[in-house]
Design goal:
Length: about 100
């Protein structure tokens, strides 16, 4: 499953907005998720091979914002329960462990 150009741009903007709302720096996010800054940039720009990594980042940001009492910007393409999407490994997403390496 792939996103349309409009969905890609919307998702990138939703990531940027939610990072701002979370009040976190990119280095802090990478450290929390145990990934490199390069991998985080790949995910934010939707160039990551593993679709699950973007969902893990999404869940991480939503949790951080909600824990701080904020209201996250909803994701328009990365929405619903991963188990509802046949092409995702929902167990990996729910576990919250990013794939190894930078790709």
């Amino acid at each position: 499953m792939s996103l349309s150009p409009n969905e890609k741009e919307a998702t990138k903007e939703e990531f940027r907005a939610n990072i701002k709302l979370a009040g976190l720096t990119r280095p802090a996010i990478a450290a929390d998720l145990g990934i490199s800054a390069a991998k985080l940039e790949r995910i934010l720009n939707l160039h990551q091979r593993s679709l699950e990594d973007a969902w893990i980042l999404r869940n991480y940001l939503l949790t951080k914002i909600e824990e701080a009492g904020g209201q996250p910007v909803p994701f328009t393409a990365l929405k619903g329960d991963p188990e509802d999407h046949w092409f995702l490994d929902a167990a990996t997403i729910h576990h919250g462990k990013m794939t190894p390496g930078d790709e």
